[in-house]
Amino acid sequence: MPRYALVAVSGPLKKSFLYRVPDNFAGLSGGQRLLVPFGRSRKLGFFLQYTEPVGGIDTKDIIRTLDSESYFSGELFDFCLWMADYYFANPADCLSAALPSVYKKARGADYVWSEILREPLPDDLERLYKPGKRLTAATLSNLVQKDRQSLRRLVDSGAVIERWPDEDTRDSKRLIGFRAGETSIWYEFFRGKKFQPESFNDIKSRSDLKACGWSDYHIRQARVAGVLQSVYSEEPVPLLDFIRPRENLKQLILNEEQRYALEKLSPSPDKGFKTFLLHGVTGSGKTLVYCQLCRQFIDSGRTVLVLTPEIALTSTTLAYFRGFFGDDVTVMHSAMTSVERLESWRGIRQGRYKIVVGPRSAVFAPLKNPGLVIVDEEHDSSYKQDDPSPRFHGRDAAIMRAKMNDIPVLLGSASPSFESYHNAVTGRYELLELTRRPAGATLPTVEVVDMRSDRLRGDLPYISYTLKKKIDDRLGQNQQVIIYLNRRGHSTQLKCAECGLVGKCPNCRVNLTFHKVGRKLSCHYCGYLLHRYDNCPSCGGSDFIYQGVGTQKVEENIPRLFKQAQTVRLDSDSATGRKMAYKILTDFSDGKSNLLLGTQMVTKGLDLPNVTLVGVLSADMNLDLPEFRASEKAFARLLQVAGRSGRSGSPGEVIIQTYYPEHEVIIDAARQDYRGFYEREIISRQTLRYPPFSRIINFVLSAVRDQQLEEEALSFRERLKNAFDRKLSGAQILGPAPCPMYFLRGRYRRHLFVKTNQMVKLVRTLTDWESRQPRFGLPSTIKLSVDVDPDDMM
Prior knowledge:
Layout: E1 3-9, E2 16-21, E3 33-38, E4 41-51, E5 60-61, E6 64-65, H1 74-86, H2 91-97, E7 110-113, H3 123-126, H4 137-146, H5 150-157, E8 160-163, E9 174-180, H6 183-190, H7 206-211, H8 216-225, E10 228-233, H9 256-265, E11 275-280, H10 286-299, E12 303-307, H11 311-325, E13 329-331, H12 338-349, E14 355-358, E15 370-376, H13 394-405, E16 409-413, H14 418-425, E17 430-434, E18 445-450, H15 465-476, E19 480-484, E20 493-496, E21 513-515, E22 520-522, E23 529-530, E24 544-547, H16 551-561, E25 567-570, H17 580-589, E26 595-598, E27 611-616, H18 630-642, E28 653-658, H19 664-671, H20 674-688, E29 695-703, H21 706-727, E30 732-744, E31 747-756, H22 759-772, E32 783-788
Helix pairs in contact: 1-2, 1-13, 9-10, 18-19
């Protein structure tokens, strides 16, 4: 009797597809990768479940399995399907997100000439025939250009053998260099070419070849032709071995508050799922509690997942955990090479690693016997993935994964999200508090400086007299200083002094930011670049006015301001490459520089004992953004960056520069009064029915034509309202309205969002609607993204 399967294939629709399972297939398991026909192409699919055939639907056969068994445990497979259901995502996107890159696509088959031909080849193919040899990329390209079906006919006739590897073992090894191919192949390949390199007998690395004049193009073409043969290391892949363990951590002694928190969190047979919120002031030793807690769970035979908000902080946290656990801890994040990620992923699956540290994507780690989930800096916006799908929240997904495993989850922060703190004070989570810093360290004193009356004149108006004097004083005492400005680049806009033209992004219609290195103008939204901007494109003038200030301009002027400063800058421009952020922070911690200038990368999780002064150049930035979380985010950033000061015996100080010294958020941040800030802000949240008193789903529609977008957005709202009126009570639809970033990446944008207390039911309603009416009846010229629990409403 024929068997049928539901298969998830990546695409814009949240749906699965029906395929017939060939009779010679063994049993399939959840998440197993399949190669399936899809339209005129072949695609990677994931097996979801067996099902009954549907009358009237013409089904195709699954071509083959790509794995001998599923890479998903039952628990991880169920978690990915929950994510797809809750975040209105394609199941294939969620399953793909849980795999290393080598498994995320159907790797192309190898095509090999058969040793024996059952029938003669055509004359034009006879010269290409090489028994038992793999068809080169050039041969395959010629076949496709001549006739798209020619390769398929060769396979069907037996002249070519199609070999699908279960696993690309080359990607599991580290490439160390290249060996020259046969001499005859070498000279035949380079005959008549301008580039005539010398052959060699030893192994040369890529950098060695480039030093001899090879380009990436030459290397790529020579590898395809077999002129260069790749050489791989047989040694285990080192995983971020440049991150050194923190020393002397095991000698640290917990204070009374830390011991109490540890007792409440310690593993016990009857604990099961429960969510704890550890609200600790900055520098209160939350990471030490995490490490001591992990030790207890590892000793009981369990594994632990530790989430951090972003890659720069992951390296710092990893160094801390390596100081405790050595080789028992590994890391997962996107800055690792594909080989490193694969090695780490395999080690986790095999149970070699007991602790996994990483940003939001680490929530998919294939842990064996998980016992605890920790989410550090749980308030941070970096946990929310805005694009691409699945648009999940790492913190909330981690809580659900803990619930599905019936294990505890610990959220930690000095400035908890309103959702988490509300759950704690209402009893849904258990609240644990660390109210003081250990070892006699105290919270820093904070001074608010009114920039309307206290600022340097001339071209340095972003520095106050007060901050300049304080920095000079601290540097003179051989102490370290952090300057925080949440704006990278040199100038926020570049204006021609002769005709007044300001560079704007053609894709987003926003002012381009000037970066002095390379004299380039950059859009920080879509990535549009103008290189070597030396002359105005309108009048040809070369005299420019540099308006606004970014970290590069501040860095440029620091030698004028502070003679004793040895400055290092930490932002996404300077922290290029996977080692740079860690190196910058390590060098600063080692005292190789005394002034750290940076964006929000310097605000969280850093433990720098010699920092005694933090200066916030512009506390007002982003305070008035048109989104309901603007105040919460501004407060958290100020509180977090203030917490970098005074973390040892020396007293710390914070200077907050602002043009709004009377603003309630600034006052609360200066007092470091999270509870007071929360109690005031939560009233407006409740009045306006914003989270945590409702859930939000944001629909963003975009199109090339503004008029069409407006019409379709209004029509979509009516259909959405009709769908909700039948199944949902109390759902409130707001919009459609232009997005704050109305023109982005060449498209006009409108959004409408829904407030509800029935999110699961709402998403199911959307799923049912889309299954009846693909793309909700929107034309193909309209793009729609559905964001459940959005963090950024821009």
